[in-house]
Design brief:
The protein is built from 8 helices and 45 strands. The chain is mainly beta. It folds into 3 domains: 177 residues, Methylamine Dehydrogenase, Chain H (7 Propeller); 265 residues, 7 Propeller (Methylamine Dehydrogenase, Chain H); 116 residues, Sandwich (Immunoglobulin-like). Bound molecules: [4Cu:2S] cluster (CUK) and dinuclear copper ion. The site of dinuclear copper ion has 9 residues, from loops.
Length: 642
């Protein structure tokens, strides 16, 4: 009977989860309920003042990262990552097109979910931010001195690159896990023969400590589960990585999986140090694999794309003691690790309780060789041996957990639309506040490191409904900012976000401000088509290719009257911005060009192409209002018959 009630409850929860409905009924409560008393004062950042924190929100299906200031919620920038971006010309300019190369060709879109800031000794160091592309599996790196994407590596043997891109304590690795298991290597086979044949690749991409260059060092070829999310160990558990899994039944259709079968899935615990040692001693085997590695060089201002041909794969059963499976309630989503590295929290999204696993207990059970069977040769731990506690949350649909510096954890509940604050170690619930509506991830700046900055929390909500002025059928997603400095959380404000933010990363503004680049030094510009000064401007014809070496400086193009171009030519505009000042880009747009404009930063050279189709005299102009004479910044190209 009890079980029947339980499964009925579960069904209600499941259907609510699928409908994505939260407590979005009571208007008065929504407006006032959780609002702090002096909320306006706390989010007000006076004109000319700066925010205290940066927040980097993933753009989901925009493929980008957006940057906000906290507490104001002001949007500071959108950084294009996996998309073509007309605002800057990223993915349109000749220099940046190679960034979007993959083994499937030029793919100017992706679905970005989890940004993570690089760390040193488990603390944010503010050098880079990494972000995953889910759809055509990729990991990108953004250089936080320029807020631009400077490297993208494709992940072979992976599909739906979701449990990514989290970094280890010293950014030794950025880690990527496959959501979909697939045949490894790919092969034409019946889909319903999935079980036992599909595999899940977990990828460890090393990050060179000096320059930050990424390299796919090894992949662990795991059983054919779905790998949903992951987090690194830290402190005592540094050297380990934890992945939540679902569909441990290995079904090719997930219809039946959610309603029946295993009542537990696993958290996979990976001792990556052990595997690293194994591969450093010649372990693993190389397998053929095609994947692109794209690098943007900030001195030549050019990206290059290299196609890699093989990858080192590791069979986990060949490295005893490297991989264990920890049972956790069904279909966990989040897999979060406490700042001290002791607790691993599995959020079984179809369960009301949060299960907290203990790293120490796990080690002890491993030492005592207490296992509860195995899956494909990987030991399964006893649930009771590895559990540290259960949080009786009272909420429904737990997804993700972040932490503050005072031993508290904050978990989002999608179905009951709330954030619940609870205490690590005692597992007692301290506070709960509604979110508007149906919250996914949450973020505390530094909440994914040894040193969280527990002043603010943002909740990223999946459903907006009535929070803003209506804008037709589609509304931007809503972010809610909470003050978490006190015992109780206080809602401070709402602000819209762009695309679909899944996760975010945040850091104190002071970490990035001092090293933010103001402009590129002209003398360091090594672009092959750069010119040193406006007087070096020239037009060079090579067959039907015409290279125009053009200069921009307030407020003139040199040259600005160009003749001798013919229908059918390939015209390359290589535009060097000779400004040496902060915040003076020039833009360039050409009538009839089937590309976007480009925005050229001071000291930089960028190229776009144009194929004139008709004779005539055609204008171009600067797109960025750069001075009082911006409207005078223009030119003409005369196009003659072939
Ligand atoms: S997430 Cu990607 S489905 Cu909960 Cu990290 Cu939104
Ligand atoms: Cu240069 Cu407007």
């Amino acid at each position: 009977m009890k079980n029947l009630i339980k499964s009925a409850l579960l069904l209600v929860a499941v259907s609510m989860f699928m409908m994505g409905c939260g407590n979005n009924g009571n208007k008065t409560q929504e407006k006032a309920g959780a609002l702090g008393s002096n909320a306006a004062e706390k989010v007000y950042v006076a004109p000319g003042e700066h925010d205290e924190f940066y927040a980097f929100l993933s753009g989901g299906y925009s493929g980008n990262v957006t940057v906000y200031g906290l507490p104001s919620g002001r949007m500071l920038k959108e950084i294009p990552v996996f998309s073509q971006f007309p605002t800057s010309g990223y993915g349109y300019s000749e220099e940046t097109k190679p960034m979007l190369n993959t083994s499937h060709g030029f793919i100017p879109w992706d679905d970005s979910h989890h940004p993570d800031i690089s760390q040193t000794n488990g603390e944010l160091d503010g050098r880079f931010i990494f972000i995953n592309g889910n759809n055509t599996p990729r990991i990108a790196k953004i250089d936080l001195s320029v807020f631009e994407t400077t490297e993208i590596i494709e992940i072979p043997n992976s599909a739906g690159n979701h449990s990514s891109s989290f970094v280890t304590e010293n950014t030794e690795y950025v880690v990527a896990g496959t959501r979909f298991s697939v045949p490894v290597p790919q092969v034409d086979m019946p889909i319903n023969e999935y079980k036992g044949k599909f595999k899940g690749a977990l990828s460890f991409i090393s990050v060179d400590p000096e320059h930050g260059h990424m390299d796919l060092k090894f992949q662990i070829i795991m059983p054919g589960f779905n790998y949903d999310l992951s987090h690194p160990g830290r402190g005592n558990s540094h050297g380990w990585f934890f992945f939540s899994t679902y569909n441990t039944e290995e079904a090719s259709t997930l219809l039946e999986v959610n309603a029946s079968q295993n009542d537990k899935d696993f958290i996979a615990a990976i001792n990556w140090k052990k595997i690293e040692e194994y591969v450093n001693n010649g372990g693993g085997k190389k397998m053929p694999a095609n994947y692109a590695h794209n690098v943007y060089d900030e001195s030549t201002h050019n990206a290059t794309s290299t196609m890699k041909k093989e990858v080192l794969v590791v069979d986990p059963t060949e490295v005893p003691g490297a991989v264990y499976l920890l049972p956790t309630p069904k279909s966990p989503h989040g897999c979060d690790v406490s700042p001290d590295g002791e607790y691993i929290i599995g959020s079984g999204k179809l369960s009301a309780d949060l299960t907290v696993h203990s790293f120490t207990n796990m080690l002890k059970a491993i030492e005592d060789k207490k296992f509860d069977g195995e899956a494909y040769g990987i030991p399964i731990m006893n649930y009771d041996d590895v559990v540290a506690g259960v949080v009786k949350s009272g909420g429904l649909g737990p997804l993700h957990t972040e932490f503050d510096a005072k031993g508290n954890a904050y978990t989002t509940f999608f179905i009951s639309s709330e954030v619940v604050k609870w205490k690590l170690g005692t597992w007692e619930v301290i506070d709960r506040k509604p979110t508007y509506y149906s919250v996914g991830h949450l973020m505390v700046p530094g909440g994914n490191s040894r040193k969280p900055f527990g002043k603010y929390l943002i909740a990223m909500n999946k459903i907006t409904k009535d929070r803003y002025l209506p804008t037709g059928p589609e509304l931007e997603h809503s972010v809610q900012l909470y003050d978490i400095s006190g015992e109780k959380m206080e809602l401070l404000s709402d602000f819209p976000s762009h695309g679909e933010p899944h996760y975010a990363a945040g850091c104190p503004a002071d970490l990035l401000k001092p090293k933010s680049k103001k402009f590129y030094k002209m003398e360091e510009n090594k672009h092959p088509y750069a010119i040193k000064a406006p007087q070096d401007a020239k037009v060079v014809r090579e067959g039907s290719n015409v290279h125009i070496y053009m200069s921009t400086i307030r407020s003139h193009f040199t040259p600005d009257n160009i003749e001798g171009i013919k229908v059918g030519d390939n015209v390359y505009f290589h535009i060097t911005n000779h400004e040496q000042d902060f915040d003076v880009p020039h833009g360039f747009a050409m009538i009839g060009a089937n590309t976007s404009e480009i925005l050229v930063m001071p000291g930089q050279t960028k190229t776009i192409t144009w194929q004139p189709k008709q004779v005539g005299v055609w204008p171009f102009y600067c797109t960025d209002f750069c001075s009082a004479l911006h409207q005078e910044m223009q030119g003409y190209i005369r196009v003659s018959p072939q």
